[in-house]
Amino acid sequence: MYDNNFFENFDLSVNFQNLRQEKVTHYKLNDGRIWSVFEGKFVSSVDDTANIQEQTITLEELISALDFYHYPKGELKSDEEFASEACAKRNQLLSETDYLVTPDYPLTEVQKQTLYSYRQALRDIPAQKGFPREITWPTLNLK
User: Is this structure's pTM higher than 0.90?
Assistant: First the structure.
């Protein structure tokens, strides 16, 4: 067990602003493009506060670094990742309306048809042109 004087011998003050500034905020690729970690996309310019990694890297190295540090990959996500996220969102939206399709839920015939059309549109999302990067999400209005 440590006594109360144990920590008096250490300087525990930390300058968090300096730590934040030392963290890489941008990566420069060997083709000249600059990736913004916080924006999750390529940018055309950076400001004076940017901390760009000194060594240029390949696109594959950038993706590995983003994965390693759990940074969002933004537009660098693969089609499989976009599709997985879209299907998860679609499944969530379907499950949010499951209770509405029970036979005893009080909906008019018009509302039921609207609901069925909405749910079918959700199921058809993977067939949309541009899927998985460009999705038109259906909306539900039962009023």
Answer: no
